[in-house]
Task: structure prediction
Amino acid sequence: MADPEQTKEPMERSRDTLFDGSLHCLQHRDGYRFSLDSVLLAHFVRPGKDETILDLGAGCGVVGLILLHRASAYIRSLISFELQPELVQLARENIRLNQFENNIEVVAGDLRNILTHCAPEFFSTVVCNPPFYTVGSGRLSGNDQALIARHQVACTLPEILAAAAAVVKNKGRLVMIYPAEKMGTLLGLLPQYRLTVKRMQLVYSYPEPPTSARLVLLEAVKNGGEGVDVLPPFYIYSRKDGDYSPAMQRQYEADWICS
Result:
């Protein structure tokens, strides 16, 4: 009898571009597709010299692609770590498509067993756009790939933080994006894994009329000291039903690159 996994028809793909067409990204049309969350997260990372970066739960690998596009001179190595086989394959194809074969390695695995794949306290920075929704909350997707990427069905937030803390160096950084309404849960958990928030920015849809924050970007340091840099609000749109704000538009421009 044929293996059902081998007899599946290939998922239809789209080929999307960023930075005025200088970066290409294959995505599954009916699977999980990256959104501006990934773009915001990648730009929130502040690469230092000789960075070793882990993209935890990489999906199609877009965060790593953006980081290398913007800051390849600062990055010694980057690993995209992903659970789902279809997304692992897609991430590898995106690396080849953008000629980053010498810069990114894709590792397939379960972050709950992270130390079977990665050395402890190896990475200077861990980047993560985690599943936002706990089981039973949020709008469920009928697509298994999107469900796993958006909902904490394959891992929980504590398991994500435990994995990040296990592989990030002492004084290394965890950079995350998360729903602002769930920020209390995240901030309450971080100290349990010796992670201290050092930089934070709230993301809003638009400035007027005032609305609640939509997302939070944060940088936590392993065994970090006191003091948090709370950045000015970031607005996605200039106004309700309007175009992207200048700050958001810059994140898609080709010349928005670290020097």
